[in-house]
Predict the structure of Gliding motility protein MglA.
Amino acid sequence: MALVNQAKREINAKIVFFGPAQAGKATSLKHVFNKLKPEFRGAMKVMNVQDARMLFFDFTPPGDGNVDGFRVRFHLYTVSGSSVDPAAWKMVLKGVDGVVFVADSAPQQQEQNQRCMDELVSFLKGYGQSLVSVPTVLQLNKSDLSDAISMAEMERTLNPSRLPSFRASSQSGEGVLQALMALVKTVLTGLRSRGAEGIAGGEGLQRIVDEPVASPVTAKPLPTSAAPQQAARTPEPPASEVQEEPLTLELAGPPTAAEGDIISVPLTIRSGSRSKEVVLTLSLAVGKG
């Protein structure tokens, strides 16, 4: 769900690269990042999420990428790993405005393609959405393999909804930008049809931390360095309660990239039947090497 930032005169929209493990999602995201001019994009950031890696960055499309005078900033996400917990995908897909489904054209991956497509439909349904309401394109990746399934066969088995599809290779870059920019154009058309007044205002949806938390909150280790900007604390409960009901920490939603190297991570702290929602603000510095 796109959000309007009135102060910055920006509309923030989310696009997720989704698909089977090893299909080329992260490679595709990195290819897009490397092809965009630095003045149009933010830094690439990486975060560990439930034993997987979440990669994300934001960019503003060149040309007429605005709605009612508001600049549109797209935030691109994917999750990579040999086995990604469904909870991580559900978190990243929350509020999504467009999906690039990265399918694997290798013959042995066709069952995984179908399973992931079914999962995508199920995850979107959980948010009251579908492949009709959320713009989606098919990136038929690894099509340059010598034994790749033909595009016609991939269409027949994986694309009964007749989604826009693109023959692609994330290694060479063929078709990757074309698939994404076709999706960006569709999302922009939808945003313009609603107008800035019809898009949710980000200010009204932001969580505000008004109390400190029981103990400092630490995010999972990042490949990049992370320094908490602020830590919150709640009144310390009696020692007997702490012993009987230990604290647990859960992700409450997808991290949100802000201007520069700032990222906000919504968290839920639980102790028995009690819970507290907080926002952890991190400053990320991209590592070199």
Notes: Confidence is low (pLDDT under 50) at residues 202-245. The first helix runs from residue 25 to 35. Residues 201 and 239 are 42 Å apart (CA to CA). The first strand starts at residue 3 and ends at 5.
